[in-house]
Amino acid sequence: MEQELQIYIDGKYYPKSEAKVSVYDHGFLYGDGVFEGIRVYNGTVFKLKEHVQRLYASAHAMMLKIPLSQQEMVQAVVDTVRKNQLKDSYVRLVVTRGLGDLGLDPRKCPNATVIVIADRIVLHEGEAKTKGITTLVSWVRRNPVDSTSPEVKSLNYLNSIMAKIEANMSGADEAICLDKNGYVAEGVGENLFIVRNGKISTPPTATGALEGITAKSVTKLAIKLGYEVTVENITPFMLFNADEVFFTGSAAEIVPIRQVNWRQIGNGNRGPVTEKLVDEFHKLTRDPTQGIAVY
Ligand code: PXG
Predict the structure, then answer these.
(1) β-bridge partners, 35
(2) Is the CB of 113 under 6 A from ligand 1?
(3) For residue 37, which atom of ligand 1 is closest to its CA?
(4) Is the CB of 208 inside a 6 Å radius of any atom of ligand 1?
(5) What tens digit of pLDDT does each residue of 46-69 get?
(6) Where in the chain is the domain with CATH 3.20.10.10?
(7) Which of 33, 54, 162, 180 has a beta carbon 3.0–4.6 Å from 140's, enabling a disulfide?
(8) Is the shortest distance between the CB of 44 and ligand 1 below 6 Å?
(9) From ligand 1's centre to the CA of 210, what distance in Å?
(10) How many whole angstroms separate alpha carbon 47 and alpha carbon 217?
């Protein structure tokens, strides 16, 4: 039988079937915690330092003290991937406020819980990546930055889940969320880009989007390819009339969008700019200098 995956919890490894946290953990009781989703390509943890930095920035914003240095956290991820002998995989890094009582006061939680899961990943190489997906602009708005800010990658994903339910029920592959002013913010776990007349734009994070690590890589690649990339407010009208629209994210990678609320985008297929970026991004993920090598 294949060996069970080993999960890191607070410095110890547990087989997947025994990897558990308490029902008194405030991550479970209140969504009080932060996380990252990271890909491993051919034994290199892609943009690991950037993900760890963002994890600590999210934790700092909510005054959650992580009991490891960033360097130790990088090492914990590398060790967990190595222990499971994974090459192409997916890492979920979770830090919760830790064990407390039934009151929400975080002072009741002296020690954060640190979890590293390295698991296999099913790659969606088929239709979605080449033909594109259908989307629905959801009525569920992104929270403003003075609320549960989407800039913090916290365990509070109900906003995204509500939007996802709307997409599911309407038969769309994914949801697009607007900010409170009606501008396009992002997907439920992806950043969004549009292409018009050969120019690329993406919404500002202040509109209520996570500062995506994939979005940053893709922006750099686009500039290297000679495209202009502008951060600007994007309206639903601009989406409907874009030549190309695509999502970016660690889990999603680059996904073309071929339909927004029943309106066809471009010619209804993956556009040429998206295609070039997909090719370049694929090469980037295979470059061992773009992450931390495990082996
Ligand atoms: N917006 C939101 C709300 C996200 O959660 C992104 C944008 C893209 O960011 P990155 O840095 O990944 O390019 C995310 C990332 C999952 C999962 O399991 C979700 C994300 C990443 C990895 C896994 O649903 N979201």
Answers:
(1) 94
(2) no
(3) 22
(4) no
(5) 999 999 999 999 999 999 999 999
(6) 127-285
(7) 162
(8) no
(9) 8
(10) 9
